[in-house]
Amino acid sequence: MPDTVDAVIIGAGPAGCAAASVLADAGRAVTVIDRHQSAGGLARTLQRNGNRFDIGPHRFFTRSPDVLDIWQRFLGKDLTSVDRLTRILYRSHFFNYPLSPLNAVTGLGIGTSVHAAASFGYRKFKRAIAPREPESFEDWVCDNFGRVLYEAFFRHYTEKVWGIPCSRISAQWASQRIKGLNLARAAVNALFKHRTSNVKTLVDRFLYPRCGSGMLYSNMIRGFERNGGAYIPQAEVTRVVRGEAGWGVEYRTRDGAGHVIQCRHVVSSATISDLVEMLSPLPPKEVLDASRSLKYRNHYGVNFVAKYHENIFPDNWIYVHSPEVQTARIANYANFSKHMQRDSEHFPVTVEFFSSPGDKVSSLDDAGRIDLAIGELRYLGLLAEQHLVEDPFVVFSRAAYPVMEMGYASRVARVKAFLGTLPGLQTIGRAGMFQYNNQDHSIMTGLLAARNILGESFDVWCVNIDAEYLESGTAPDLCERDREESLAPERPA
After folding, report:
1. Which residues partner with 302 through β-bridges?
2. Is the peptide bond before 281 cis (omega within 30 degrees of 0)?
3. Which end of the chain is less packed: N or C, by CB atoms within 10 Å?
4. Strand pairing partners for 265?
5. Residues ≥6 apart with Cβ < 8 Å to 192
């Protein structure tokens, strides 16, 4: 490895792999340092005894021609189209997602459905006579769906994911993730199959790599190495030192040995809080205080194989809104691709828990988490006694989700402003920018960061995470490469 490289990229997730590929294609000397054994970050795929597991369910969708080009370049015929079936499980009843009016009425009952419609109408009337901007996630959802549906279909799941009351979650996050969708519009979509709608969450097909989401990033890293890039897995960056001529990135490999590499540019997809703590010299106190006040949720994926002669459930994944269990989401990878299974009687499953230090899930050991997951699935009726459970294991992901608590934006802005004063340093991806974004957003931030190193001038933070088109259309539409819409900023910043 050379003493000095053009760039060190911290993290081989979607953003880091994208940046590395662009720079290596341009002939730049680049080193990627990642803490995991395989590339992909939260989108990597694990192989175990002939079965494959993603860290959690991942869909591939985009209207960015640049992102789609990457997917097709590195996957080719391994990029498949998948029919989407996702449902909500609430109080022992499955609800279609997106909404199906008849299904909703059947599940909720006539009385509750009438109450829900009245609640929605009341909220609309109240806002019409006393308009105001919603301050919290709870305000936003109640304004758009009414309180009855908020309690049934939003509150419990959201609080499982974030670990705080919905009244403390920023309304900005709701507007990003459910933008443009309200009860009336969802009903119209369900009744009339309004497939031209640009509303998020209504896509009914998606793209997916044949052997798991991590297949893309493994292919990208192999291509990066063929182009002369250096990939260092299972290593932890410990310090990022500013010098007069550039940066020194210190890291520790699996054997405990310490190393340092000099570079002109650092591109970091580590959590923005971790990066701040690794900087030497440390930032001013007000920046440290802002960074340390940002919160993250940890993720536990309990993985196992359900052995049975028939598929255990038909969904790609299920949202578990039932408040009496800790489980938040369940994925069945056999419904993504048959190549995720060892054979037709083995169904790889992930049960997801979101956690913070000191709560019930974090206090258990892995055996306890496995028992909890299996017990809750049997309680929910998703695993019957005849479904044999084989080869369970747990994957822990620290700081997987940034918590969009009210007031977070001003704290992120303070950290961002300071980092912007450090030449040669860029942050990318979900963790690096404290944004709850999707794979294609993360990839685009990596592409733009790399292009900046190559001499262009983009504001990476301008990648649009609010765009309604991100989940519009069906998978075939996404392959038409509509170049009128892109995640990239229209003009250099």
Report:
1. 351, 394
2. yes
3. N
4. 7
5. none
- The better pLDDT of the pair 180, 8 is held by 8
Provide mean pLDDT across the span 109-136: 88
Q: How far is CA 70 from CA 15, 159, 192, 477, in A?
A: 12, 35, 35, 17
- Tokens representing 426 are 């860029």
Using CB atoms within 10 A of its CB, is residue 344 exposed (0-12), middle (13-18) or buried (19+)? exposed
Two tokens at 46?
A: 């694990």
- pTM for the predicted model, two decimal places: 0.89
In 3D space, the residue among 27, 456, 283, 226 whose CA is nearest the CA of residue 7 turns out to be 27
Task: Encode pLDDT of 372-402 as tens digits.
Answer: 999 999 999 999 989 999 999 999 999 999 9
Asked if the model's pLDDT at residue 493 lies above 70, the reply is no
Report pLDDT digits (tens) over 354-367.
999 999 999 999 99
CA distance 41 to 278: 20
Q: How far apart are CA 290 and CA 281, in angstroms?
A: 17
Please report how many Cα atoms fall inside a 13 Å half-sphere around the Cα of residue 417, on the Cβ side. 11
Rounded CA separation 38/85 (Å): 29
